[in-house]
Amino acid sequence: MNDYKDITLQGMWKNNPALVQLLGLCPLLAVTATFINGLGLGIATMLVLIGSNITVSLIRNLVRNEIRIPVFVMIIAAFVTIIQLLMNAFTYELYLSLGIFIPLIVTNCAIIGRAEAFASKNTPGIAAFDGLMMGLGFALVLVVLGGMREVLGAGTLFAGADRLFGPVAESWTLTLFKTDSPFLLAILPPGAFLGMGLLIAVKNIIDAKLAARTPKQTEKATRARVTADT
User: Membrane-crossing residues (predicted)?
Assistant: First the structure.
């Protein structure tokens, strides 16, 4: 249980692929103009992570060290191709919106890194859970950044939800405010850099406060034990 708890904390916060490892930034910054774009790419990346982690774990004792990286890349490319074909078939408009950044998932260092550093050394079950948590951590940053840019830039949220969820989601768009002049800085790539920097800064502030609180809690616990002993 402690292993799964640690994997969850690592993937979602302590070792988040986007906020801490700073991996996969090219698609992260390029496609997060809206919440739905970020969610679509996040789900695709998470599914590739889970599938590749499980497969790498299953064959970890069969692949020689000299060729393991090319084999891992081939496995990742196979799963990316599957996801790309599924999106082309069922979410075609979102597929067009994400464009080249779907096949570029193959080059995401976060996926290759987890296959090499974790999945190749652990059982399929725990490797799958690691892929899920790392994927969720990456997807969380995508949707937060995409939602933030969409709200600031266009005053809407969940615009284009039907591209991912179908006709049932056509009425999901929330209009927070109306504007005749969209805030282009938020929509264009510079806004992605600024938003990403803000998210990293917020995480660092929270981590600093948690680190400052830990010694105080430890000191209180020590005093309590000394008092109880005396």
Answer: 20-50, 71-90, 96-115, 127-148, 183-206
Spell out, as residue ranges, where the chain has pLDDT lower than 50: none
The total of structural domains in the chain comes to 1
- Name the one residue in this structure whose structure tokens are 């590739």: 48
Q: Look-up: residue for tokens 């290759």?
A: 112
The model's pTM is 0.89
The answer to whether residues 106 and 76 touch, using CB atoms and an 8 Å cutoff, is yes
Quote the CA–CA distance of 37 and 12 in Å, as a whole number: 20
Res 224: pLDDT: 57
Sign, CA torsion 165/167/172/178: positive
pLDDT of residue 23: 84
Which residue stretches of the chain are H helix? 2-9, 25-31, 35-58, 68-90, 92-98, 109-117, 124-154, 162-165, 184-187, 189-229
Print the domain residue range for 15.
Answer: 2-229
Distance CA 96, CA 85 (A): 12
